[in-house]
Amino acid sequence: MECLIYNVPDPTLKNALSLDLAFQGALMHLKGQFNFWSFSANPDAMVEPNGIKKLFAPGQKWTKDDARQLVTAALDYLGYGVPR
Questions:
Q1: Alpha helix locations (H) across 1-84?
Q2: Helices (H) and strands (E) in the chain, counts
Q3: pLDDT band at 80, cuts 50/70/90?
Q4: Confidence band of 69 (pLDDT split at 50, 70, 90)
Q5: What residues contact 27, with CB distance under 8 A and at least 6 apart?
Q6: Which tens digits make up the pLDDT trace of 12-38?
């Protein structure tokens, strides 16, 4: 999750009225990154917190599908009621 949150733009995290809204905004941003139909989606551009290594490069532990499942599960678990 740390690696995913690192790829959320700062304004999404800083401009929310509460920590809860910031986290919800972060999850929604990430959900958009894995949405096939989004024009701004580019999960291949995501990097690890070192800013260098690609998050979903060959040989990495995580896949884009793993990340998509984690984000969807977090949204469901936290009750944000986002339709799939």
A1: 2-6, 10-14, 19-33, 64-77
A2: 4, 0
A3: confident
A4: very high
A5: 71, 74, 75, 78, 80
A6: 999 888 999 999 999 999 998 888 666
- Do 74 and 11 form a contact (C-beta atoms < 8 A)? no
What's the rounded Cα separation, in Å, for the pair 84 and 75?
A: 10
Rounded to whole angstroms, the Cα distance separating 83 from 75 reads: 10
pLDDT at 83: 54
User: CA–CA separation, 17 vs 51, rounded Å?
Assistant: 28
Q: Which of 36, 37, 50 is nearest to 7 (CA)?
A: 50
Q: What angle do CA 57, 65, 32 make, to 5 degrees?
A: 95
Phi, psi at 47, each rounded to 5°: -125, 165
Query: What residue has token string 């989004």?
Result: 38
